[in-house]
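Re: [ENG-882] Designed sequences occasionally contain unexpected residues at chain ends

Forwarding the minimal case from QA. Structure tokens:
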């Protein structure tokens, strides 16, 4: 294969215009012409060189499509890996990652944020009385009601079993306490229905303001401890 013309010679004005026109056409059509790919004009290429380069460009375009599909699939897989299998919420791993991100933001900008930990009370009795499908319906109801009553900037996740967590941004401890109580009321507002039956929902909760001196796992443990303290207090009352 041979490319005619001396590439070592300076570009002439007409040659520059020809290349500029080829590039403009390529940008408008989204396709790269063989001559433009090699940085020459069409007149400087033999038919065999043009055909070979065109074949190469077709292969590159196919490869680009495959890479695009692979990236889309990878994004889909990563999203699935971050989601709880039963509900559409983030799972524990993903929520801990978001907790670390929010903590870093709070450190950098002095913005308050809080973690609320929820526990669905008496899930075992629902499972025992009505079956696991009813228990699953209860967990899905909690997930939906929590998600429906927070801001778009807040983060809701299922930590596993009957436990959920909510990250409230721009929210200090006292404000988070009030918001947690409101969320609990929203969850408990009406029974969950399944088949021909229904069951009331009741949740316990605890709050821990997110501070720079605590790692995400420690924040979760402390919010969890606050939740159990409230639950014990309610039982003893």
């Amino acid at each position: 294969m041979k490319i005619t013309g001396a590439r070592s010679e300076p570009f002439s004005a007409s040659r520059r215009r020809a290349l500029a026109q080829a590039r403009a056409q390529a940008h408008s059509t989204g396709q790269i012409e063989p001559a433009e790919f090699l940085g020459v004009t069409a007149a400087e290429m033999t038919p065999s060189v043009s055909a070979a380069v065109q074949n190469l460009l077709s292969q590159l375009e196919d490869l680009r499509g495959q890479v695009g599909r692979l990236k889309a699939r990878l994004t889909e897989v990563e999203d699935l890996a971050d989601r709880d299998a039963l509900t559409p919420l983030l799972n524990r791993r993903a929520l801990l990652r978001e907790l670390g991100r929010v903590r870093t933001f709070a450190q950098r900008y002095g913005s308050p944020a809080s973690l609320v930990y929820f526990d669905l009370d008496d899930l075992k009795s629902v499972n025992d009385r009505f079956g696991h499908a009813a228990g699953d319906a209860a967990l899905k109801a909690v997930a939906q009601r929590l998600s429906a009553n927070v801001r778009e900037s807040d983060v809701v996740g299922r930590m596993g079993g009957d436990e959920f967590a909510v990250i409230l941004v721009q929210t200090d401890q006292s404000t988070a306490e009030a918001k947690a109580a409101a969320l609990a009321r929203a969850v408990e507002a009406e029974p969950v229905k399944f088949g021909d039956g229904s069951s009331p929902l009741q949740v316990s909760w605890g709050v821990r303001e997110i501070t720079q001196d605590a790692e995400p796992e420690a924040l979760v443990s402390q919010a969890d401890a606050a939740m159990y303290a409230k639950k014990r207090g309610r039982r003893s009352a």
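QA comment: On inspection the terminal residues look reasonable. The chain has two domains: 13-81, 92-236. Proposing we downgrade this to a documentation issue.
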